[in-house]
Design goal:
The complex is a heterotrimer.
Chain A (H helix, E strand, L loop, with lengths): L6 H20 L4 E3 L3 H5 E3 L1 H7 L8 H4 L4 H7 L9 H5 L18 H8 L42
Antiparallel strand pairs in A: 1-2
Chain B lengths: L1 H26 L2 H5 L4 H4 L5 E6 L8 H9 L12 E8 L4 E4 L12 E5 L2 E4 L5 E9 L8 H4 L6 E3 L5 E3 L9 H5 L6 E2 L6 E2 L5 H4 L6 H5 L5 E5 L6 H8 L15 E4 L7
Chain C lengths: L8 E5 L11 H24 L7 H25 L8 H4 L8 H35 L5 H13 L8 H34 L12 H34 L10 H40 L4 H11 L1 H21 L5 H23 L11 E5 L8 H5 L2 H21 L10
Antiparallel strand pairs in C: 1-2
The chains are: A mainly alpha, B alpha+beta, C mainly alpha.
């Protein structure tokens, strides 16, 4: 058809072709439909590896126990055995190379996370002994008197 | 002059001719569209799932702290991948609930946070029941957040975890709107959609998620629902568990023990 | 470092930690502007397809205005993106299970249709201007550029024979015919974007797309009338000043006569669509109250409580009822129409506001609320983009574009090409 009426259609076609050419260069080659189908699995595959390569920061007590075996075995005898070292000492990362020293959180607020008394029936919180922070030696760090690695009253400093 | 024009014309037509079918096929290939729709049964034998025991949770918020540090969500920003809610049901039949700062610092007061700097104190005698509910991404089997992403920047992996491609997300916020659980937000630094990944970098290495590891009371567990011997899988199969907002048809994969009807 | 949404969201009672008003003023502007585009086009098509002669004067105007509005439908979306530079990805890797992905396709299709239609309507004018410019000797730089633009716009066709022009006319009719469903689809799917969000209790209703289309047509007609009146007033003013000047072909009285006729005719269509839009909105409201599912408690406290003024006073009262009375009172004048259409536009804007902001003003917990505070002083990119000035920028752009477009496609004072 030689009619001029089709001219705008050619312009549109040219634009579509342009977009598809740009797409061929712009979009990563591994972008496509993967295991979960088009609805849930349409993505750039290499992104999964990017997420897998994210840095692990919390290493768990298993990582600490070889070098700090004394601390590890002592806390294991106490009710605080359930608490991971890193909850108070901070994430280990590649300690001792990086960071060489961890910063311990000694604030009262850390202890109060569990030891502020909330007698909630049906919740485990009701079974933990608590103190009223406004009456119980306010302003003083708990570790001044209590040894977190030996929290029982015999362990008082 | 004519030859040069001809040359250009041919070159452009050539590139277009090569790129067009390839790119077009990439956008809609019926074979790929219909394949792998229900591949969870026939596919890989890992499907991550989560179990929360709300009886065990004490609301210490150490999970939230660990999550923020592990996953580099700015510590002081008022957004979080996981959080803990407190429900206090009083004798007058009222429900009081809050989650100040997502319980990053735990619950160290009996006062309920009402927002706008107001608080409501509840006397011990008035409480019928009270408990804590940890929340995180449900890694739904039918994730509505993925369905609505216009560019394929968020997706579900073969083992069922929903991730966001930070290099491809345009930041339209549609996924945040589509999530019935409110787990998504914009990352304060990267300004793309952000969500719980079940610590994908950890679970794929055989580690526990940061929140599971940080929990002193075993209130959180992560496991492979396709492995019949997995503790999480066993509890889900053999005990009375529930999920959140199943009326949305999302088929959430975070299971709860001891949840009450007041929990939304 | 900032948390998106924190600057303008205030939380009350039990709201989840990650909940903010993520879709703010620009997403109010988006369906509002898209609605204007769709409405303007439907208005122009009423003449081209159904041959409603009384709308002839308005039709060409509405068509060009619709084209001027077109990029502006995209602008608010672009401005609300956290990564605006990646917006192009919607064309690169469209994910069609998302209502937004359809935007790229539908919007482009619609753009192509409107552009083609304008091309056919103005082809005679383009060719004549192009030829005149080409044959002019000793061209200045500006004229050379002009010549280049006009010659490019002819797309290499200089045939303006009777036969060719007849073909143009047929093409316009076909395009306008295809254009109506596409325009409705363009806006209907904007409604679909909201209506399909199952997580949002206020948005989720199958009526949403239809409600959006109806109010879109209402707002589109209203804006065309508004702009038409303004343009006509300017022409009257010019006609009065340079009565004998060569620029205008008509006297002040002639213009006035045409003006009121066109306005009366258009006002009828406006009223028709307005009734339809309100009926649907009320149906939706009544239905929600009657069925009263789980979410109704929180919705009721938003609709009849927190947002009562916005919904019932501003939207239905000032935006719908008042203009309704203004139009129905006998002896319609230009001034009364002007007030009426401004109120209608305001009403439609408030409807978008109440849907978009209202839908985010309650928490997913159904036990908390969020309040939106529109950022006025732009103290950062974020508060500019998603603040008062960002919205004003979006609102002003189509008028600037129309002014530019009018230089190439003059709306008034050229001979009909068909």
């Amino acid at each position: 058809m030689k009619s001029h009426v089709w001219r705008p259609a050619f312009v549109v076609l040219a634009l579509i072709v342009l977009i598809l050419i740009v797409r061929a260069f712009y979009v990563s080659k591994d972008f496509g439909i993967w295991e979960r189908g088009y609805m849930y699995g349409f993505h750039r595959k290499s992104n999964e590896d990017e997420w897998k390569a994210f840095t692990v920061k919390y290493k768990s007590a298993e990582y600490c126990k070889d070098c700090h075996s004394d601390k590890y075995s002592s806390i294991m005898q106490t009710p605080h055995a359930v608490i991971q070292c890193e909850n108070c000492h901070g994430p280990a990362l590649d300690h001792p190379s990086d960071p060489p020293k961890l910063t311990v959180d000694k604030r009262r607020e850390l202890c109060l996370r569990c030891h502020y008394p909330l007698p909630y029936p049906t919740s485990g919180r009701a079974n933990i002994r608590g103190i009223d922070p406004e009456k119980h030696n306010p302003g003083i760090e708990c570790v001044m008197c209590h040894n977190p690695h030996k929290p029982s009253l015999e362990g008082m400093k | 002059m004519i030859t040069r024009r001809k040359f250009l014309k041919n070159t452009i037509a050539g590139i277009a001719g090569l790129a067009l079918p390839a790119a077009g096929a990439e956008i809609v290939s019926p074979r790929k569209l219909f394949a792998a729709r229900n591949d969870t049964i026939s596919g890989p034998n890992v499907r991550w799932a989560f179990l929360v025991d709300t009886y065990k949770c004490v609301g210490c918020g150490l999970c939230v702290k660990a999550c923020k540090l592990e996953n580099e969500v700015p510590y002081d920003a008022n957004v979080t991948r996981t959080w803990v809610e407190r429900y206090v049901l009083t004798k007058d039949g009222r429900i009081h609930a809050d989650s100040p700062k997502g319980a990053r610092d735990g619950f160290t007061t009996s006062k309920i946070d009402l927002g706008e700097g107001r608080f409501h104190d509840i006397k011990k005698e008035d409480i019928d029941k009270a408990f804590f509910v940890p929340k995180l991404c449900n890694q739904c089997e039918n994730p509505p957040c993925v369905q609505v992403c216009p560019v394929g920047a968020t997706y579900q992996t073969a083992d069922g975890v929903v991730l966001v491609d930070r290099k491809w997300c345009i930041g339209c916020g549609y996924c945040i709107m589509a999530c019935p659980y409110g787990v998504r937000f914009f990352h304060p630094v990267y300004h793309v959609a952000e969500k719980c990944t079940f610590c994908y970098h950890r679970i794929t290495k055989g580690l526990k998620t940061a929140c599971v590891q940080a929990c002193p009371f075993g209130a959180r567990m992560v496991g492979n629902i396709k492995d019949p011997n997995d503790p999480v899988s066993r509890i889900i199969r053999t005990e009375r568990v529930s999920v959140l907002k199943d009326e949305y048809g999302t088929r959430p994969q975070v299971y709860y023990l001891g949840i009450s009807r007041e929990v939304i | 470092m900032y948390v998106h949404g924190e600057a303008w969201t205030i939380k009350e009672l039990f709201v989840l930690p990650n909940e903010y008003i993520y879709w703010s003023i620009q997403i109010v502007m988006y369906p509002f502007m898209t609605g204007l585009v769709a409405g303007a086009f439907v208005l122009s098509s009423l003449y081209h397809v159904f041959g409603i002669k009384q709308l002839k004067e308005m039709a060409r105007f509405a068509l060009v205005f619709s084209f001027a509005l077109l990029p502006v439908a995209m602008l608010p979306l672009q401005m609300h993106l956290q990564q605006p530079q990646r917006g192009i990805e919607v064309f690169m890797t469209p994910h069609f299970t998302s209502a937004i992905a359809a935007f790229g396709i539908v919007f482009s299709t619609y753009g192509a249709i409107v552009a083609s239609e304008i091309w056919f309507v103005y082809r005679k004018h383009l060719v004549r201007t192009a030829l005149a410019l080409r044959n002019r000797a000793n061209k200045r730089i500006s004229e050379k550029i002009q010549s280049l633009i006009f010659n490019a716009l002819t797309l290499g066709v200089y045939d303006i024979s009777e036969r060719a022009l007849h073909q143009d006319e047929k093409a316009v009719k076909v395009l306008a015919g295809i254009g109506i469903p596409v325009a409705c689809f363009l806006h209907g799917y904007a409604g679909f974007i909201f209506g399909s969000v199952k997580a949002n209790a206020l948005w989720m209703t199958p009526l949403m797309p239809v409600i959006f289309i109806m109010s879109a047509i209402v707002s589109g007609i209203a804006l065309c009338m508004l702009t038409y009146i303004v343009v006509m007033e300017i022409r009257k003013f010019l006609a009065a000043r340079k009565n004998a000047a060569r620029l205008t072909h008509q006297t002040k009285e002639e213009i006035k006569g045409i003006e009121i006729n066109v306005i009366k005719m258009t006002a009828k269509y406006l009223l028709f669509f307005l009734i339809f839009a309100i009926s649907l909105e009320l149906l939706d409201l009544i239905f929600r109250g009657y069925t009263a599912v789980k979410t109704w408690d929180i919705l009721r406290s938003v609709i009849y409580g927190k947002d009562f003024t916005d919904i019932f006073i501003l939207q239905y009262g000032v935006g719908n009822l008042l203009p309704f009375i203004l139009f129905l009172l006998p002896g319609l004048t230009v001034r009364r129409t002007l007030i009426g259409v401004i109120l209608v536009l305001f009403g439609v804007f408030m409807m978008r506001w109440n849907v978009v902001i209202g839908g985010q003003s309650f928490s997913l917990t159904f036990a908390g609320f969020m309040h939106y505070h529109l950022p006025i002083i732009p103290d950062s990119i974020e508060t500019f983009k998603e603040g008062l000035f960002g919205a004003l920028l979006v609102f002003a752009t189509p008028f600037v574009l129309f002014w530019i477009l009018n230089k190439v496609f003059p709306v008034f004072g050229i001979e009909e090409s068909h």
